[in-house]
Amino acid sequence: MEEDLLIELRENGCLQVFLKINDSNLYKQFNVNRWSGRQFIKEQNDGEHHAIVAQTIVKVCEHYDKQLTFEQKYKALALGSIHDLGEIETNDISHVFKQKHPDIKKKLEELEDEIISSIPGYETIYTEAINDPVTEAIFKIGDNIDCYLYTGREIELGTKNKELIQIHKDSGKRVSQWIERLDNLINNKEAKHVEDH
User: Fold this and answer.
1) What integer best gives the mean pLDDT of the chain?
2) pTM (2 d.p.)
3) Could you give the residue ranges of the DSSP H alpha helices within 64-161?
4) Can you say whether the dihedral through the CA atoms of 55, 59, 65, 69 is positive or negative?
5) CB of 177 closer than 8 Å to CB of 161
6) Is 99 exposed, middle or buried (CB count within 10 Å of its CB: 0-12, 13-18, 19+)?
7) Looking at residues 117-132, what average pLDDT do you find?
């Protein structure tokens, strides 16, 4: 029966289209460990990160429901789900290394953008999402909340790692700054730039 269904899907072209969009390489994101070069108690991989960021974005969009368009919500959710897929090829490069080498950081970001944009089905939504200030703010809130939640869990588990404790404090501040930026963008006020981590 299952084989008959696959034959029927192949004949209709559905399976071919689905496989182009949902490349099995996407599973590699669950093999990319985050927090490179840091001591931690419980690992987190990119797949888990994408899931938490996307789930958090759903909550942010629910909070701002009437003030956001469907398109803004969709783009933010899409960005939250795919933003680190470039790391399938580059792996997670330490934040500390990227801060010490801004020229390499810039090239790495360009490469990761290129990788994500080359995945069939993602090129248009990714490009649109990263170039929309409201979408970016929604996404950054979700991304930083995940950072805050992850480091908070590490603290609850007993970490004494001063760097993670500082990251926890800093990510909490960034969440507040991105919320303020989003509020200002929605209300057509001047939106301050937020320094990203």
Assistant:
1) 88
2) 0.86
3) 70-82, 87-90, 95-100, 102-117, 123-130, 133-156
4) negative
5) no
6) exposed
7) 89
